[in-house]
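Sequence only, no structure available. Ideas?
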Amino acid sequence: MAADTMTTPRSLRPLSGKVAVITGSTSGIGLGIARALAGAGAHVVLNGFGAPEDIERMRSDIAAEFGVRTGYAAADMMQPAAIEQMINDTLHEFDRIDVLVNNAGIQHVAPLEEFPVDKWNAIVAINLSSAFHTMRLALPSMRRNGFGRIINIASAHGLVASPFKSAYVAAKHGIIGLTKVAALEAAEIGITCNAICPGYVYTSLVEAQIDGQAKAHGISRDQVIRDVLLAQQPNKRFATVEEIGALAVFLASDAAASITGVALPVDGGWTAH
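Reply:
I predicted one. Tokens follow.
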């Protein structure tokens, strides 16, 4: 054990021994964040949907690759009771929650007057209300330990709006407000709360959008990327899940102890307009 500590200095594993819960982490940005936190030494609890065999392979691969304990909770983020069970099970198994990442989210696009009520309710429940529930349930443990890092994955749409995304924009604006409230309430007890606001991040879902848009409009992939998806991003490149993960690690570390209540854009200059 002493040899391991000497060969892996804390500067390389700044979250060693911490416990992190990441919602919506069986794919995309959430999985990238979970892997980054595990790489920094944190034990991680994954959450999300997927085939059981795929999730088990993902869980065991992270545990083996990074040498951390890795759990999984199947909680549906629309169900407050399921969220409570996830937090309680994590506390029972790991005895603490140090880092909470609220990443779960869904999207639907439609004009405001045609927006389906059930889609509105689902988006607000998953993208906003689930974060309220995880935060209210995890905060008591963080208070007892005098340490906590809450990281809410908002969006550039938490800072600016786009047409046809009423529920998503409203929920992401709401989570930034919730972030500020939590930051103020916990400011004196070693707990920070911040929001990351990505623009377009390259994931398998985005790849599918590229192909779909190219076929629908009869244009090239490069045109879709530059003129459709990244029309608002001055740098004309996707962020990567690794970039979002690295920022999450920093915000969860001791180095970010004085950063709280902020919404950090990772949007290639989108919100600089």
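Residues 75 and 82 are 5 Å apart (CA to CA).
Hope that gets you unstuck.
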